[in-house]
Amino acid sequence: MDPQVRTAAIAHFDEHRAAFLTELKDLIRIPSISFPGFDAAPLGHCADAVSALLRKHGLNDVRILGTGHGYPSVFGQRLVAPGKPTLLLYAHYDVQPVGREDLWTTPPFEPSERSGRLYGRGASDDKGGAMMHIAAVSSWLRGAGGLPVNVKVLIEGEEEVGSTNLEQLLVNHGALLAADAVVIADSENFDTGVPSLTASLRGTVTVAIEVRALSSSVHSGTWGGPLPDPVLALAKILATLVDEQGQPAIPGIGKKVRVLSRQDKEGLENLPFKEPLYRKQSRLLDGVSVIGGEGTVYEKMWHRPSIAVNAIQASSRKQASNIINDSAWARIGIRIVPDMDPGETLNLLQDHLKKQAPWGVQVTVTPESPSRWWKTDTEGPVFDAARAALEKGYGRKPAIIGAGGSIPFVRTITDSLGGVPALLFGVGDPYAAAHSENESLVIADWECACRSLIHLFAELGEKQ
Ligand SMILES: [Zn+2]
């Protein structure tokens, strides 16, 4: 490929980046919250707005893809490079609820620029990702006169509610969505200005536990002494979930944890770790220890299981009085890593919780549906292309990272495409506050991500 074509595509983006940013702002103005109980109309408007953008920027066969359930996805494609690889570009147009509106400095659906950041619900998660795909395709078509690879774009409408219908959509439209690799724009960089390729995601095993000892709460003065307190019983049970160092202590749980590969170790060693920065990013208070035993914080977040008690309830602060509660409740979440099996982990957890119950209290454990971990090997031409593209787009080598969180649909997409390479790089950063108030996007990083995707098309087009 003539290197000037690539330069022309990049130059087009640089000339028109303000216009692309304006289009992103227009998407942010649409309150496309996919949670139940919110107005459905904005999702239709947003799907239409995305369709219009795809058409405007040169994609063909633009259409709404649905399964008859939930909110639809938007599809468009441009198959103009015979013999060249086909990329499926994924992002989502639905957003989270706004949280506490009074905590937003500017209204969530009125995009606003401050100190190099663009604020607004969906700025980084994930309308910025959708607009990255559109800007990259447009820059090639308009700036260089054509694309060096074939592209298919899929912008989903219910990622924030678990991508419930995505699997069926992929089954129904298998041939239409077939690709040689997928670019998933829905993740965060390691830090602002640090391009990052996400190579693993943890899965989840979650249960609710209820401990009962009495058929109703009683006066703690009149009755206290001989009666087991369900709250203390629950506290004793919960305390056995981790050891002194805060590591999971459920028997058998660590058995299947995969030993780190050379690639994983190298990735971890290359990460810049500064404890003060980590403490700031993780919101850790002064004097509170970093726990979890030996190893770096990233190894613990990405490659080892962890346990959290997400919620706990017995009576309430408001109703607190001198009673022995009849029952106590908690929600426990385990993050699982390769090669832990969700079903087996769930059984180990359930057995453990029941075995630890003191004083004959009644224990009920109710599982939620688990999600699997995901991990990719980062060897091979597609990953080499991605590393080169991110380095060119940001002017520095990408970090290979994991994500401690779970994105169940990544596995859904890669499995249904027959295990093709999946490139996870996004436009977020640790301060983007996705899902929280004052969500934002670093505009300069978003531009670097767009340039990286433009380079990726060239890198992959040149390889074949
Ligand atoms: Zn997202």
Written description of the protein model:
This protein is an alpha+beta fold and 464 residues long. Helices cover 36% and strands 20% of the residues. The strands form 5 sheets. Strands 1-2-6-3-7-17 form a 6-stranded mixed sheet, sandwiched between helices. It has a 4-stranded antiparallel sheet with strand order 11-13-9-14, with helices on one face. Strands 4-5-18 form a 3-stranded antiparallel sheet. Strand 1 and strand 2 (73-78) form a beta hairpin. Residues 92, 125-126, 159, 186 line the site of zinc ion (ZN).
List the helices and strands and how they pair.
Layout: H1 3-28, H2 41-56, E1 60-65, E2 73-78, E3 86-92, E4 112-114, E5 117-119, H3 123-144, E6 150-156, H4 166-172, H5 174-177, E7 181-184, E8 196-201, E9 203-212, E10 218-219, H6 220-223, H7 230-239, H8 262-269, H9 275-281, H10 297-302, E11 306-313, E12 323-324, E13 327-336, H11 342-356, E14 362-367, E15 374-375, H12 381-394, E16 399-403, H13 408-416, E17 422-424, E18 440-442, H14 443-463
Parallel strand pairs: 3-6, 3-7, 7-17, 8-16
Antiparallel strand pairs: 1-2, 2-6, 4-5, 5-18, 8-15, 9-13, 9-14, 10-12, 11-13
Helix pairs in contact: 1-3, 1-14, 3-14, 4-13, 12-14
The structure holds zinc ion (ZN).
Zinc ion binds near residues 92, 125, 126, 159 and 186.
